[in-house]
Write a structure and sequence with these properties.
Layout: H1 10-30, H2 32-51, H3 55-65, H4 67-70, H5 75-103, H6 112-139, H7 150-158, H8 170-197, H9 202-220, H10 222-232, H11 242-252, H12 257-260, H13 264-286
Helix pairs in contact: 1-5, 1-13, 2-3, 2-13, 5-6, 6-8, 8-9, 8-10, 9-13
Membrane topology: Multi-pass membrane protein
Subcellular location: Mitochondrion inner membrane
Protein name: Solute carrier family 25 member 53
């Protein structure tokens, strides 16, 4: 039997776990203002993903629609940002703790954060796929007349089975989120340590590491985001599987990687702002 002095009290452990969820949510909440600021950029990217248009053409579409419609669909990402940070950071920390206790002699310690991030990303996909589905429908101008309000979108999705309604494109979202979270938690620590060695203060090191890590992930997984946007933007029609949708997208992009990555440069700017701030705020609170 272990001595009581060697066992961490359950209350303290639970409090530490809850604090991680709280810090993750707070970090993402503080990045909601940049989310509002860069939402027009996000919407521009979305239009490029859907219509394969140039930046000037996408901006022209949004300008023609007016300021009111510019922020149509902003509610889901605002809610997602706060809840996403709460779940992602908190659940990753919970998984990391469990993996460290059970598999510390089997799995290298350096790989544990990435493995825990992979699991957190899968849970994230289950929770947030419906949010992303609603957001993509609202952002598609082709749905404005048929589905003018949030309530009309929700009613339409409820009438369909989950695979075609709320959980359309669940598989590519799971792949994107699981891989992205795994890379983020696996790389941000080593990247922060490397940047700190260059003489930057801790807060700046965290910001730069979050920016560089999320930038690389966004670009690597961008084709999955394009696929998700195209699968989720439409409501109704002939149901197609992931493979069929990917073939149709690849043909629509003329089998050209450059066209597939149209809008990718703006992803860099969005990642620099949102995940740089989120990482810096999270690391700052954790170190207190």
């Amino acid at each position: 039997m272990e001595k009581s002095s060697d066992v961490k009290p359950g209350g303290e452990d639970s409090k530490a776990r809850f604090q991680t969820y709280l810090i993750g949510g707070t970090s993402s909440l503080l990045s909601t203002l940049p989310t509002i600021v860069v939402f027009p950029i996000y919407k521009t990217i979305f239009r490029q993903q859907i219509h394969n248009s140039l930046v000037q053409e996408a901006v022209g579409q949004l300008r023609k629609e007016g300021l009111v419609k510019l922020y149509r669909g902003v509610a889901p990402p605002l809610v997602m940002r706060t809840l996403n940070g709460t779940l992602l950071f908190g659940f990753q920390d919970t998984l990391l703790c469990q993996l460290s206790l059970r598999f510390q002699d089997v799995i290298p310690a350096a790989a544990l954060p990435a493995l825990a991030g992979f699991g957190a990303g899968m849970v994230e996909a289950v929770v947030f796929t419906p949010f992303e589905r609603v957001q993509n429908i609202l952002q598609n101008s082709l749905n404005d007349r048929q589905l003018p309000t949030l309530s009309s979108v929700l009613s339409q999705l409820r009438a369909q089975r989950p695979a075609l309604g709320y959980y359309r494109a669940f598989l590519p979202i799971t792949a994107r989120n699981a891989l992205g979270s795994s890379l983020y938690f696996g790389l941000k620590g080593p990247t922060r340590a490397f940047v700190a060695e260059q003489g930057l203060p801790p807060l700046a090191s965290s910001f730069v590491s979050g920016t560089l890590t999320s930038m690389a992930i966004s670009l690597a997984l961008y084709p999955l985001s394009v696929l998700v946007a195209n699968m989720q933007a439409q409501v109704g029609g002939e149901p197609k599987g992931v493979a069929a949708c990917w073939r149709a997208l690849w043909r629509a992009r003329q089998q050209n990687v450059a066209l597939l990555y149209r809008g990718g440069s703006l992803v860099i700017l969005r990642s620099c702002i949102t995940w740089g701030i989120t990482t810096a705020v999270y690391d700052l609170q954790v170190k207190k």
